[in-house]
Amino acid sequence: MSRVLLLPLRVPAWCWVHGSSCWRGRWCPLPWAVSLLALCRRRFPLRVQRHVADHVARRLVVDAHAHGTKLLPRPVKSLHRRLTRDQPAEVDFGQLAAAGVDVLVAAAVGDGLVTRFRRPLTPWRAVVRQLEQIKAEASAGGCGLLLTREELRSAGSGQPAIILGLEGADPVGDDLSRVEELGALGVRVVGIMHYADNKLGTICMNFRGGESGHEVAAGRSRGLTALGRECVGELNARGMLIDVAHADAETIDGICEYSDAPVISSHTGARALDDFGRYLPDHSIRSIADTGGMIGLWPYRGPEHGMPTFDDFARHAEHIANIVGPERLCIGTDMNGVTSLIEGYDGPHDIGKLWDALTRIGFSSTDIDGISGTNVAQLL
Questions:
Q1: How many domains does the chain divide into?
Q2: Structural domain that includes position 369
Q3: Are residues 57 and 84 in the same domain?
Q4: Helix H or strand E segment including 328
């Protein structure tokens, strides 16, 4: 009787063919092994295999801040890419399932940094158009839309889901009825400001890295305005999560004081470790946590500031967790909106590397389950 060489296999292709719900090795004839490995390469990119199998497949993964691929008109986007050499490749929503991302907050942008490139549309119409494009991208990418908190309970069932957001409520202006209109359009997360001071509050840093916008430089006081306080009340009343990621410390203090609901800083870091305007001082971290809110870890790497390595990412997580606990942490990658990322993090298919870094610095598996998604899922 001829002998058949058997090889132990532990490959995603076996689970796909066999229908097993767990990753386990099988003894397999050599010809089968070759075929399965070839199939595995085609159906699962190798860099996805390594991390989906070991990390993402058993965790709810929620990205608390990202963008679609149509944030800027094509000619503007092409020019921006030529000027920004390290900018990551675009990620369309159709790639989220393979990367193991269950829920993603995709934000339109409301300040002039983006809306000026959509003229002759008004800023309001530019935001509406962006939201329409995000919805179309979600549909084309096989993603659902989460329009209510109750729908989040089914997340992680296999189909990625998109939550609509707005970064920069500048088009609301002094017409707070537009908060209701945003809700009707499906928006559930609102960053009151982005890269410019507006009628609601002041920013921590402008696009060029300055401390704030021209209005503060002209003598305006910092912080949440009276209209901003009213806007906070409207957002609370409609169950919309307030994002303070681009607000300065004074505005964050005001929002946390007047908000009746938890708030989030969706993509940031700890200023105690890096004196970067976009990062939070310790007292702001405490203020956000005191609302029951979340701080989103942001894998941004800039020329002077940011998180160059995965270990830097983990150190920011550790610092914040030491102040308010790991249950106040989540992630916000700024996918399709950030100019440069941690070395070795090229997009959501590398998300498992973030969990590896957290493990190395001492976070438990339960902590990482929370940071990856279950913490912030309570707020969305």
A1: 2
A2: 50-377
A3: yes
A4: none
Whether residue 208 is found in the same domain as residue 150: yes
Strands 6-9 and 26-29: antiparallel
Residues 117 and 36 in one domain: no
For residue 346, give the CATH number of its domain: 3.20.20.140
Tell me the CA distances in angstroms from 293 to 16, 105, 203, 337, one per residue in order: 39, 16, 19, 23
- The answer on 28 and 132 residing in a single domain is no
Average pLDDT, stretch 64-68? 96
Asked whether residue 40 falls in the same domain as residue 56, the answer is no
Q: Provide the terminal-to-terminal Cα distance of the chain, rounded to the nearest Å.
A: 63
Mean pLDDT (whole number) for 161-179: 96
Main-chain phi, psi angles of 107, to 5 degrees: -105, 135
Structure-token pair, residue 80: 């921006």
Reduced to 3 states, what is the DSSP secondary structure of residue 238?
Answer: coil
What is the rounded average pLDDT for all residues in the chain?
A: 83
pLDDT above 60: residue 249: yes
Beta strands in the chain (DSSP E): 6-9, 26-29, 62-66, 103-109, 144-145, 161-167, 187-191, 241-243, 263-268, 294-297, 329-331
Residues 368, 355: Cα–Cα separation, whole Å: 7
Task: State how far the Cα of 293 lies from the Cα of 232, in Å rounded to an integer.
Answer: 15
The 10s digit of each residue's pLDDT in 287-296 is 999 999 999 9
Element (H, E) at 253: helix 249-258
Q: Cβ of 217: how many Cβ atoms within 10 Å?
A: 12
Residue labelled with tokens 């029951």: 292
Contacts 24+ apart (CB under 8 A), 280-284: 280/252, 281/249, 282/323, 283/249, 284/249, 284/252, 284/253
pLDDT band at 85 (very low <50, low <70, confident <90, very high): low
Name the nearest CA neighbour of 225 among 194, 202, 248. 202
> 224 and 335 share a domain?
yes
Same domain, 137 and 9: no
* Residues 66 and 206 placed together within one structural domain of the fold: yes
Query: β-strand 241-243 against 187-191: which pairing, if any?
Result: parallel
What's the pTM?
Answer: 0.81
